[in-house]
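Render this sequence as a predicted structure.
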Amino acid sequence: MMKYKGAFIKLFPPMLKKYMIEQYGKEVTRKAFKGAPAIYREMLADCDDIGADNPMAKNIYMCFVFLAIWKAADGAVDPDGLRVVIRKWMKSKLVGKLMGGKDLNKPEDMESAKRRFHAMQAWADAHPEYRDKTWDFNFDETKHRDGSYYHFTRCPIEAFARKNGYLEILPVCCDIDYLTTELSHGVLHREQTLATGGEMCDYWIVPDRLKDPK
């Protein structure tokens, strides 16, 4: 069971409301937002604990908001429409201010990103009680000359979704990786994800001004 934290389920719906109404109307939005908090709490109770202070835990707390909204809408919210909602929200000035600021075209920002990725794996290595539950970072500095490459063969969100009937909507959350990378002036190249039946979730992240990355 993951420790309950309500910050994201309280913060996100007001920020998404405008785009949800544009896509689905007021009644569907009201129903989805009204039912989501209880579902969110249940999801965390059913999710394997990966450590509340795990730096990757925020991925669960954030992603579960979208899964809970989808579930609460009881079929009225579809994956393609929710993608539109999330993309509009992620492209908004507010999110740009909150999550932007880094520029992967700057060598120091790219190196900072690499250190952050390695720090997440270091946390898992330092907490063996969670190592088999959390994401497994696999780095390969020889695979590409440019940017940063790593992959996962284990994702607790994918494991939860597959077990609890959320796999249909999970790829929408996977696509957020592209949007967050764009906010840092980067490009994510990806061949597969666990959510869509792949053997891994791969991440090759390069600066967006780099032509013909290798």
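Summary. The two ends are 41 Å apart (CA to CA). Residues 7-207 form one domain.
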